[in-house]
Structures are given as C-alpha cells and as structure tokens.
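Recall that a protein's primary structure is simply its ordered list of amino acids. Everything else, from secondary elements to tertiary packing, is in principle encoded there. The following example makes that idea concrete.
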Amino acid sequence: MIDTNKIRKMFRVYENNPNLVYLDSAASALKPDFVNQKVYEFNSFNGVNVHRGVYELSYEATNMYEDARQKVANFINSPFDSVVFTRGASDALNLVALSYGMQNIKPGDEIVTSLLEHHSSHMPWFNVAKKKGAIIKYIPLDENNMITVENFKSVLTDKTKVVAITYVSNVMGYVSPIKEIIRLAHKKNAIVSLDAAQAVPHMKIDVKDLDCDFLSFSGHKMCAPFGVGVLYGKKELLDIMEPVEFGGDMADTVMMDNQTYKDAPYKFETGTPMVSEVIGLGYACDFLNSIGIEEIERHENMLALEAKRRLSQIKGVTVYNMKATTGVIAFNIDGVHPHDAASVFDKNNVCIRAGHHCAQLITRHLGVLGTLRASFYMYNDLKDVDRLVESAKEAVEFFGQF
C-alpha cells in the first residue's frame, strides 16, 4: 500500500510548496530527490562524454550510460540492444515514421490510427501518408469514445501496413486493447507502433508479452529528467531501418565514396547523447521499482475513481471519461472555457492542465475546444481529491455569476 506521506518526503518540491496539489503528472511527473541527486553526482564528479574516450572517466561514464540502457531494458522486459535513447517520446515516434515508414510505405497502403492519438503519434504518420500516397484510416470509437477490438477489425484490411496507436489516451485515460490489436495486425503482416508515454510510468509493461514492434515513451513522465526518451524496437526491424540523422558516434566508416553505420541501437543515437539524462532515467526505473509499479497503478486509479465519482455529482461539471481505469480525468465546467476555469484551480494551488492536450482529434470529437485534465500519481492522496472537488465547486459558483 502506498504511504503518500513517506513518498512526499522524497520530493523536495513539497518542502517549498507545502500546499501544493500537483495533478498534472500526465504532462510531467515530479522529480524525486534520489534521481536528482544521481544526476547531480554524475555532472559534479564525472560529467564527461561517453563511448569515444580512452581515459578512465570516460570509461566510467560509458558504463553508467550503458547500465542505464540495461535498466530500461529490464523495466520493459526488452533485449538490451532493442533500446534506443531519444530526446523524448515524440522523437521516438517520429523516428519510426521517418525511418521505417518512409522506407516501407507505398502508394495505396493503409495506416490505421485513432481519434485518441496524441499529435506525436498521429502527425508523423499523416506526414508519411501525404508524402507516400498512403491512406489514413481511423478506428471508430464506441459510445464511450473507447477503442474496441471489433471496431479495430472494421478498418483492418489486407492493405494495412502500419497501426499507429496509443496504449493509454492522454486525454481520456482509456487503456486500448493492445495485445489483441497487435495479434490481429500481425495476421495481416502489419507492424504496430505504440505510443506508451502514458502507460510505461503507470503500469507493468512487457514488450515480449505484447509482441509489439515499436514502443515509445518519455522519461519526464516517469520521474526522470526532461529531454530523454526511449524507442523500443524489435531488433530485426531496427537492423533494416536507415538512420534519419547523421554525424558523430553513429558512423562506422566514412570515406569519400561510401559510408556505413554502427549496428542498432547506436546508429540511431547521433552525436553527443543526453548522458546525465539517460543516467537519470536509469535511476528513475530503480525508483519506480522500489515503490512498485503495480502499487502505483492501484493507488492512482483509486484516487481517480473517487474524484470522478464526486465530480460527476456536481451540477455544472461534465466528466468525459467515467469508464476510464487509469489516473487521468477529463472534465469541464459547463459553458466555461477550460483556460478560464483553470484560473480558479490555480488560485487554490491545484495544478491541472487545460486545453486540447496536443490531442485535437478527440477534443473535436467531444465537441469542445478543450478540457480540464487532472492526473494522479504516487504522491497524491485523498486530500488532493478534496481540494480538486472543492475547486470545481468554486469554479461552478464563480462562473455561474455571469
């Protein structure tokens, strides 16, 4: 069972902000002292580049960097050489589209995606389709705006080459039936690119069990530093993919009339890498393991269910994702722009997100300009739920004056 009081002592931000109600972890998680200290120690006591140095400090830095790759691999049950470090989930998702997509998609091919996608999952494949003459097809959502296996089957054809889909919607918090979708896609010889930015920090992920072809996620949503992410790819796919950036460290041989690249994952890691950030990501995996990812999932889901129950009872509040089983809540104060409504929450030091959340397809489908989004994590408790609900009531009363 999560001891929130104990966990909050691990996050220095609460010392400086004792009244903080941080409900924006779907955007970025807070950073624990443990991870911050490890990044500080590397930068202070080492701080040199990796791979190319033949001196002791560089050797130590390289070991720490590659140890982090192994920690990440273990965290998602991946082979070591299937983990590519990127600048974030968006960078990883774009890499799949720009490399695998541009190499393999042909005119008339079909790319299946959904209205629940973050722009970083949808836009790269929209670009591929536009340039290669392919067709984008959208999985119909059910009456609860969820992806179902049956609706996925309705758009899956022999022409489907790629399924680009979210594991967990960053707006609605819905968990897609990924394992069955992957199985069906593979029967059509299509590959599946998963946006797992909202999944990896909150639930146990096993890429071998899922049998996914690609899986992308970011560090900053899982208590790691900003500026680092991961692309998992099946090694046989990474091996045939061409790099999309060229330069230092990824090159094997460079001659006037020819050039070759290192094997994956290194051919995709161009230039000086995000060394301290990668090391921090490795320690973030250690931190989450120490808390227990299953415990984190149960804790935040309990809080979200209670918050949705109470919010839905307030006249003037609409909750859009009552069926969600994750820590994300999408709601609005009726008749009030979410940016305006968010100002009331901010006044009460309740940090929530307001807008379209880089997912305009689903907000348009809901018929709104945007939503308010509250998202829970390990450091939240029922008192945070109280403050969220009280602020929602205050917002309804305030804007009801007009």
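The two ends are 45 Å apart (CA to CA). Residues 56-76 form the longest helix (21 residues).
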